[in-house]
Amino acid sequence: MKTLYLECNMGAAGDMLMAALTELMPDKDAFVKELNDLQIPQVNIERTTIAKCGIMGTHMVVTVNGEEEKSIDVPMHAHTHSHVHEEHEHSHEGHTHAHGHSHHHTSMKDIEHIIGHLNVPEKVKEDAIAVYKLIADAESHAHGRPVEEVHFHEVGAMDAVADIVGVCLAIYKLAPEQIIASPVHVGYGQIHCAHGILPIPAPATAHILQGIPIYGGRIEGELCTPTGAALLKHFAQSFGQMPMMAVEQTGYGMGMKDFTDANCLRAIIGNTVEGQEQTGCHGAVQEMDSIIELCCNLDDMTPEKIGFVTELLMEEGAFDVYTTNIQMKKNRPAVMLTCMCAKEDREKFLTLILKHTTTLGVREYTCKRYGLKREIREVETIYGTVRVKAASGYGITKEKPEYEDMARIAKEKKISLAEIEKEVYKNLK
């Protein structure tokens, strides 16, 4: 499976994402020219190569009428009446743009009109508008105003449109089958905007990042912007460690600020096999996917009722259900019920467990599952056809006749399981 992994150890911003993905393009300069040829109003995009902590990468300079959007972090020890307030400030996505002349503002309707008339595939337009709507909704929530009343400063709005369209077009061209991102480093401290000094992450950013794993870390400053957060939320199907993959290309998107750590976002594209199958240490094939275990302790249910629950969960599609004998408080003998299922089935099995057991709470654990590559074969015997489970990998091959088939034939032919099993293994090739 073609996989794009976004490593956000230094947060995420629209220009950093666009820069990292541009590095994955067959012709980087041609891609930047294609973006400029879209003629986003007053926008010019330039690709430069810079180094951060000795690592070379791409930095995208997006200017609107010759001006570049910048953010102003406020050191924790600084006085809030710093000289910065003497400048004219216009906010966009938690950043401050300081300058000495006026600009008009742009509404979400204006943004939709601009994106809708760009010469890009419809999928790119749909993605770009959806991303910008996440930003508009977050700004609406942060400021307590309807989305239609949210207006963006022209420089910030066009800057974000360029970043968002650039990322959406790059992803469209790269066409990954899945996108995974790391937990997002957001930084800590304060940032200056038109409304005053705000905490990091800025309110709009924090709203967009709901449900996404984030951490403050040890870097003082804004590392994740609303544009970066919205792009991650829209495109990433999951967040976590990089899966095992055969890497084809790596791109580094550089931020403007300098820190002790390399201020870059890394994009890695490569291939996994369906189910994240990878080549093992001995040329074997192993499967790796994330599953969850839902567990609860039961000390007041009869064996019959526990048996009913385990059968029900299996019938509903759980990977496995089992019980473990445990000793609870007051020396009560009890059982721990464990249900293994897919992440997307969490709510279904959680509801079933709470409904059909006496527990008042359920624990969840995320697990990585490894296994051999499996297939079902049919073996013809003198008694009939028997399915055989075959598994291979790590230089290992395993084959096992399907019990249900052997049991059916044993009953029909009035023979023992051992006889039919012997016949199956005799005919295995």
What does this entry look like structurally?
There is one protein chain. This protein is α+β, with helices and mostly antiparallel strands and 429 residues long. Strands 18, 19, 20, 21, 22, 23 and 24 form a 7-stranded antiparallel sheet that branches. Helix 4 packs across helix 7 and helix 10 packs across helix 11. The longest helix has 22 residues. About 9% of the residues have low confidence.
Would you tell me the overall average pLDDT? 84
Structural class by secondary-structure content: alpha+beta
Q: How many helices in DSSP terms?
A: 11
Stretches where pLDDT is under 50 for at least 5 consecutive residues are: 78-103, 275-287
Straight-line distance between termini: 31 Å
Helix share, percent: 25-40%
Number of strands: 24
**Principal-axes shape call:** elongated
Radius of gyration, in angstroms, nearest whole number: 28 Å
Strand content: 35-45%
Largest sheet: 7 strands, antiparallel
Furnish the topology, listing elements before pairings.
Layout: E1 2-7, H1 14-22, H2 28-37, E2 43-52, E3 55-64, E4 67-68, E5 72-74, E6 88-92, E7 95-99, E8 105-107, H3 108-116, H4 122-143, E9 151-153, H5 154-174, E10 178-181, E11 184-185, E12 190-193, E13 196-199, H6 203-208, E14 214-215, H7 226-235, E15 238-239, E16 246-254, E17 264-271, E18 278-279, E19 285-298, H8 303-315, E20 320-328, E21 332-342, H9 346-356, E22 363-381, E23 384-393, E24 396-401, H10 403-413, H11 417-427
Parallel strand pairs: 1-10, 10-15, 11-14
Antiparallel strand pairs: 1-17, 2-3, 3-4, 5-12, 6-7, 8-9, 12-13, 16-17, 18-19, 19-21, 19-22, 20-21, 22-23, 23-24
